[in-house]
Amino acid sequence: MEPKLSKIELNWETREGGKGRTKRDYLDIVIDGESLSKLVGGDLVSCLGWLPGENELAVRRLLLEEPADFPNERRSLYVCPECGDIGCGAVTVAIEKRDNSIIWRDFGFENTVEDTVDTRFNAVGPYVFEPVEYESVLKQAAELEESS
To answer: Which of 4, 12, 39, 118 is positioned for an S-S bond with 109, CB 3.0–4.6 A?
Structure first.
């Protein structure tokens, strides 16, 4: 039986500033109409759309065209909204490419200091994407500029 395919989209979101927080506009990852940032919670923003010089690299990592930024082939999705440093902690995912699908599985939280993956997000995913749609959405992210 074929797994259910999920739909991936990107939407502009704003992390409000004030009280020591930097206002940050970023591209949120939306899967099957549900904001992934709301699912994982916390004060993090996606790695897409806001960090000059890193946006294209983040897209290429999610497309499996660049090496993973964490051990065990794990890739960051949500990072520190102040500096984008994965050492501050990041929501990560294992991405697997098969002939007819891209799979996001084993969501976790980790940083570059500890050698463990916090599995607090074990109820999130897995998600299976159609490769052409997945690549199209992410490649657009590499070129998007906020319209407002």
So the answer is: 118
